[in-house]
Write a structure and sequence with these properties.
Blueprint: H1 12-70, H2 79-96, H3 102-127, E1 145-148, E2 154-158, H4 174-184, H5 196-209, H6 218-226, H7 234-250, H8 253-262, E3 265-267, E4 270-271, H9 273-281, H10 290-297, H11 303-306, H12 312-328, H13 334-342, H14 357-371, H15 373-378, E5 382-385, H16 389-405, E6 413-420, E7 425-430, E8 449-450, H17 457-466, E9 474-477, E10 501-504, H18 505-510, H19 514-524, H20 526-535, E11 558-559, H21 560-571, E12 582-586, H22 606-616, H23 619-626, E13 640-645, E14 651-657, E15 661-668, H24 686-698, E16 712-717, E17 724-729, H25 740-749
Parallel strand pairs: 1-5
Antiparallel strand pairs: 1-2, 3-4, 5-12, 6-7, 6-15, 8-11, 9-10, 13-14, 14-15, 16-17
Helix pairs in contact: 1-3, 1-7, 4-10, 4-12, 6-7, 6-8, 10-12, 10-13, 12-13, 16-24, 17-19
């Protein structure tokens, strides 16, 4: 075993070769800096100083001549004595006078910094680098990470040691080695640990776009996975590069490749290629064929994303990319690649114990983003989450049974999430009807991007109420056509195919009429709707002018996770807070390492949030479209709720909230196949599931209502038949009459 480091610090000889390489590059680099600085900084300073000196001398000479002209004739003085006396005065002055030369001073300071301070600081920093002897796979000590629900019940234990099985390079088939090199580092056997071209490209990307990018060799990836944290910083990349040079001077390429293949993550609890081979295919690595090898080689760059257990189609796309790279490098022929890609892959049965599996996958991704893959797999963390396992199980059963009952509507899948409205903590997280369904069960709909249909409308109305509209504003529900350059005319229609004339804003939103919403989108501007949506957590929305008026009807994709939190933001009286699954995270020694650093913002005023809650919980207002006792009605409880169905019935949503709980439900088909055309406005798909879940959540709890803000008041108009009332924010445009027909008469009289 090559061990060129003491347990605590570097051996001096281990640094000689890399230090020599680095010093050579450093000296050349510094010389170029000095030349450049000298030309652009020192030379102008020196020239300016010379100019000032010359100017000063000229003025002195001019003054001497004028004095000689007006002076009286002096007695004769011996010339030799005068010269001798002047010479002595000059010498004396030079002894006591300090002459400042800016160029020389600047150059001296630069030299001190470059050859004194910088090398000393670099030496101190170098001594703090991790010990590369830890690269040896056998030296890894593993501790399991436990993911628990809010009451301490075990959801999943990440115990990589059970899945860690290092093998010799000679046991790994050539197909695995070549596929890995092709996709990760095709110049592995040619470089000295780093590729300057890739580093420069990554550096430019970082400088100009503010995003720290990769550009790593296999050696650098090995260093990052085993010795360093995954933080994306310049300092970490520099450490990675220096350690890579050191490792390349002491280890052979085959040794590095062997350690790499034994120390990279392949997904789940698999750490190393042998563990991955057993996990995915139930066989040893030396038994893998080209098809299996190319699929495994594509996993390390993003194990969760490319896992064939969660998304086989994406995994096959990645496999095709790996095979094409092998063709480009002449490792295989086109015929071999086609044969490998067409081969049917048989995966081993996954038998790991896991509760709330979609939620566990989500938590694991969040942990890896915070602390890195290795810390999660080996760090022995104890993670207490916000999940209520008992509630989650009930929600899972409700979703599964609801989808089975909705099979007549050509619905095959469903998802649901329950949030604590106040804290934005996740209480239940059901990503599909059955995580273990072959091919698509592990696909997480909660974090998938789907079109929200009319369930996004509250966003448009929030912007309207924040502008010069009120809940009593009259909107036209009549035919309208919009001319769009280069596209067919846009003619929005209502879900029921009818027109309802002049309607109040409350009625338009409560009954989910499309035409008034599109008219509002035109008046407010789609970009302004997008901007508000982004501030309320729809992070994939960008204000780039690419969205049309149909954004108010769900023309842009969202995640169920984010959309549910948008509704929860209204339940928090307009305060946005990012969703979090964590209560506590402790390291292996029991120290707390998690702090809630989420920043609260207010994208919507308290008054607007209150009025939207009032409209969405107004069962009377929505009765014309949904009936008095629909699935949106919860007896003895006031719950704000909205449905949504996309064009061609591809997605069906229901979302609702109280001050304490927010529930979001989606049903449809993973492959985007349309549902039955007789699906009725959300009431036949997601709404019944939502109704059952919200009733279970609220069971035994008192009815909660949002408290009315001080700047909101209710106006009652007794002249309307029947009597009408409406909520207004103080200072808004308040009509004399609340009944639409009377307002028409008032406008005619005016």
């Amino acid at each position: 075993m090559l061990n060129f480091f003491t347990p605590d610090t570097f051996k001096l000889e281990a640094l000689i070769i890399p230090a020599t390489i680095l010093m050579k590059e450093y000296v050349v680099f510094i010389a170029d800096i000095i030349k450049t600085v000298g030309y652009f900084v020192i030379w102008p300073i020196d020239r300016f100083a010379a100019f000032i000196t010359n100017l000063k001398n000229k003025w002195k000479k001019k003054g001497s001549k004028e004095k000689r002209k007006v002076s009286k004739k002096k007695p004769f003085v011996n010339t030799k004595k005068r010269k001798s006396r002047n010479r002595r005065r000059v010498q004396k002055a030079k002894r006591h006078k300090i002459v400042f030369h800016p160029g020389s001073f600047f150059m001296g300071g630069l030299i001190v910094i470059v050859f004194g301070f910088v090398p000393y600081e670099f030496y101190k920093w170098l001594r703090q680098l991790p010990n590369p002897s830890n690269l040896i796979a056998e030296s890894i000590g593993n501790k399991s990470t436990k993911i628990l629900d809010k009451d301490g019940r075990l959801l999943y234990e990440i115990y990589v040691d059970k899945k860690f099985a290092p093998v010799k390079l000679s046991q790994i088939p050539e197909s695995v080695v070549r596929a890995t090199i092709a996709v990760e580092d095709d110049n592995f056997y040619k470089h000295n640990g780093i590729r300057l071209g890739s580093i420069v490209r990554a550096g430019l990307k970082t400088f100009f776009e503010g995003e720290v990018q990769g550009g790593s060799t296999i050696t650098q990836q090995l260093i990052k996975n085993v010795l360093l944290s995954p933080e994306q910083t310049i300092s970490r990349k520099l450490k990675e590069a220096i350690l890579s040079i050191i490792v390349e001077t002491k280890y052979s390429k085959d040794q590095i490749l062997e350690m790499y293949l034994n120390n990279i993550p392949y997904g789940g609890t698999s750490w190393g290629v042998q563990s991955a081979s057993q996990k995915f295919f139930g066989k040893n690595v030396w038994e893998l064929n080209l098809s299996e090898s190319s699929l495994l080689a594509g996993l390390p760059s993003s194990p969760s994303r490319y896992s064939p257990l969660s998304d086989l189609d994406l995994a096959k796309e990645r496999q095709k990319y790996v095979l094409n790279r092998m063709i480009d490098l002449h490792y295989i022929t086109q015929e071999q690649a086609d044969e490998a890609y067409a081969e049917e892959l048989v995966f081993a049965e996954q038998t790991d114990y896991i509760q709330a599996p979609h939620f566990v996958d989500y938590v694991r991704r969040e942990l890896e983003e915070k602390y890195g893959r290795r810390m999660v797999d080996f760090g022995g963390l104890t993670v207490i989450t916000t999940l209520d396992l008992s509630l989650h199980r009930e929600v899972q059963n409700t979703v599964t049974d609801g989808v089975i009952e909705s099979a007549k509507y050509s619905i095959t899948n469903g998802a649901a999430i329950v949030l604590d409205t106040e804290t934005a903590g996740i209480l239940a997280y059901v990503g599909s009807v059955d995580y273990f369904t072959e091919d698509w069960g592990a696909y997480d709909v909660i974090t998938a991007y789907r079109q929200p249909g009319s369930s996004i409308k509250p966003l448009t109305y929030a912007l309207a109420l924040s502008s010069n509209y009120t809940a009593a504003s009259v909107l036209k529900d009549a035919p309208v056509t919009y001319k769009i350059e280069g596209q067919p005319d846009y003619k929005p229609v209502n879900y029921d195919g009818k027109y309802h004339g002049d309607v109040t804003l409350r009625a338009a939103l409560a009954n989910s009429y499309n035409i008034p919403a599109v008219r509002l989108s035109k008046a407010l501007g789609p970009d302004n709707i997008i901007s508000l949506g982004r501030s309320m957590g729809l992070s994939n929305w960008e204000v780039d002018g690419s969205y049309g008026l149909s954004v108010t009807l769900g023309g842009k994709e969202v995640r169920l996770l984010d959309l549910a939190n948008l509704y929860a933001t209204l339940g928090r009286k307009g305060v946005y807070k990012k969703v979090s699954p964590f209560i506590s995270i402790k390291d292996s020694k029991g120290y707390e390492i998690y702090w809630d650093t989420r920043v609260e913002t207010r994208p919507v005023s308290e008054g607007v949030a209150y009025i939207l809650w009032s409209i969405l919980s107004d069962n009377t207002a929505r009765t014309p479209a949904f009936g008095p006792r629909s699935s949106l009605y919860i007896p003895n409880y006031k719950v704000a709720v909205k449905t949504g169905t996309t064009d061609e019935k591809r997605d069906n949503w229901t979302l609702g909230f109280t001050p304490s709980y927010t529930v979001g439900v989606w049903v449809g088909n993973n492959n985007n196949d349309p549902m039955n055309r007789y699906l009725a406005s959300g009431l036949s798909g997601a709404a019944p599931i939502w109704n059952e879940i919200i009733q279970k959540v609220l069971e035994g709890k008192p009815d909660e209502k949002l408290s009315m803000p001080e700047n909101v008041f209710m106006k009652v108009d007794e002249s309307c038949k029947p009597e009408r009332s409406e909520l207004f924010i103080k200072g808004s445009d308040i009509p004399r009459h609340l009944c639409v027909t009377q307002r028409d008469k008032d406008e005619s009289a005016d």
